[in-house]
Design a protein that fits this description.
- The chain is of the alpha+beta class and about 260 residues long.
- The chain has 2 domains: about 140 residues, no CATH class; about 70 residues, OB fold (Dihydrolipoamide Acetyltransferase, E2P) (Beta Barrel), CATH 2.40.50.
- Helices cover about 30% and strands about 45% of the residues.
- It is built from 5 helices and 10 strands, in the order H-H-H-E-E-E-H-E-E-H-E-E-E-E-E.
- A 5-stranded antiparallel beta sheet has the order 3-2-1-4-5. The chain has a 5-stranded antiparallel beta sheet with strand order 8-7-6-9-10, covered by helices on one side.
- Helix 2 runs antiparallel to helix 5.
Length: about 260
């Protein structure tokens, strides 16, 4: 559907212009890449930090292992939503080399030992960096956190990828199967609204420049369709609004399938 557009056309959705003109909206693309990068960093942290104990247990259960007496080197706690989390740092020596690791433990285990106390350690014979406290039994306490982590990672991937991908395929469908029709703005208004946006576990106030745009176009000389959209365009907050009669473009398939560009 590549086509030259009127010079003063108002693009309600600038990210759609690429499919018509072949010119990318680099600002929208850069914002998407930034969100993807930040989301990828959070995802990597989740998988690395929260899945690490379960990965350690799986590796240890699949490898030849040995037991040895190690020593508790530190104890510490952290407060979480579900209560206090307890951790023990320990070290042990294999072939004149010292290995150290931190491990989450129960409150009873935490209170039953002291720094410097001997403690049983199971380690992978071929890779002593893989170890856990106690005997060789699989530590099932790591499973719930692993499941929650995988679920959270899946939700994060869905939030980051789903909407952009769905929108991309939707635009591609319209531009492959539709025709480009030039219409005009029949009414437009805008206001700066204060909205509440979720930022992690908190809601923070934010301003959105919301536009109510009514437009019309003619699929054929004898028929005229009218519609309206509400869009958020914070990039236009300090700019003059387009006037009534300003051209707009519509990707049109039929009277029930069309999309404002």
């Amino acid at each position: 559907m590549k086509k030259k557009l009127p010079p003063h056309l108002f693009a309600a959705h600038p990210e759609n212009l690429y499919f018509v003109t072949g010119v990318r909206d680099w600002w929208a693309l850069s914002m998407f890449v930034l969100k993807l990068t930040l989301g990828g960093g959070v995802l990597l942290f989740l998988l690395t930090f929260f899945l690490s104990p379960s990965i350690n247990e799986v590796r240890l259960s699949q490898m030849p292992h040995q037991t040895i007496m190690g020593k508790v080197t530190n104890q510490y706690t952290s407060e979480g939503r579900s209560g206090t989390n307890y951790y023990i740092s320990y070290q042990f020596r294999v072939d004149d080399e010292t290995y150290s690791r931190n491990q989450s433990v129960s409150g009873d285990t935490y209170r039953s030992i002291r720094i410097g106390s001997p403690i049983l350690v199971t380690y992978a014979a071929n890779d002593p960096t893989v170890s856990h406290l106690g005997d060789a039994d699989f530590d099932e306490s790591t499973v719930p956190r692993a499941l929650i982590t995988v679920l959270a990672a899946g939700v994060l991937v869905y939030v980051l990828i789903n909407q952009p991908v769905v929108n991309w395929f939707r635009r591609r469908y319209f531009y492959r199967n539709g025709q480009l029709i030039i219409g005009e703005i029949t009414s437009i208004s805008a206001s700066l609204e204060s909205v509440s946006r979720r930022d992690g576990a908190f809601r923070r106030p934010s301003n959105s420049y919301t536009m109510m745009l009514k437009y019309s176009f003619r699929p054929s000389p004898e028929r005229r369709l009218e519609d309206q959209v509400v869009i958020v365009r914070n990039d236009l907050v300090d700019r003059k609004l387009p006037v009534v009669g300003t051209p707009i473009a519509v990707a049109y398939i039929d009277d029930t399938q069309y999309m404002l560009i």
